[in-house]
Amino acid sequence: MVNKMSTSSNVETSKPVGPDDYLLPIGNPRITAIWRALETVTDPEIPVISVVDMGIIADVRVEDRRVAVDMTPTFVGCPALDMIRENIALAVRAAGEVEVIVNVVFDPPWSSDRITEAGRRKLKAFGLAPPVRACGPASVAPSLERIECPYCDSTNTDVESIFGPTLCRSIHYCRNCLQSFEHFKPV
Ligand SMILES: [Zn+2]
Fold this sequence. Notes:
GMP Synthetase, Chain A, domain 3; 2 domains; 9 strands; elongated; binds zinc ion
């Protein structure tokens, strides 16, 4: 059974962000507590924002003593995946739950459009350019040219390396403020 949860305006970090329904709990304190716990979990490769802000939590369901968390991973085969699953389970147990199952699902598929607005702001504050939004399901891969510099907002930037410290990032150079910065690649 899937809990259909409506969006809540008082949880800023969990607003819907894209074409996918981003479902948030309302009126169920237990599910709310689980989402709060999930907000403390980060992707080890992108430690500045939570898995909630990353939009990788697809669903949270509770049934009797059991909790099921569905996560839709950012990258298939990402070596951090097992660690994220483990950290999710630990955080939910720390919130008082006993039986916790973390499912990896690919429907809905993760896309960078699932990152919350708060997540985008935090990425930018970290000097990591937020991913360019994809424009519709049939769009071609967004260009990595002219990525906006997170320091000065200039788009007078060059691609320095397609692959940054992780496969998820590229490195760019800003010709305006002469700084290198990383960009979280859209998928
Ligand atoms: Zn700049």
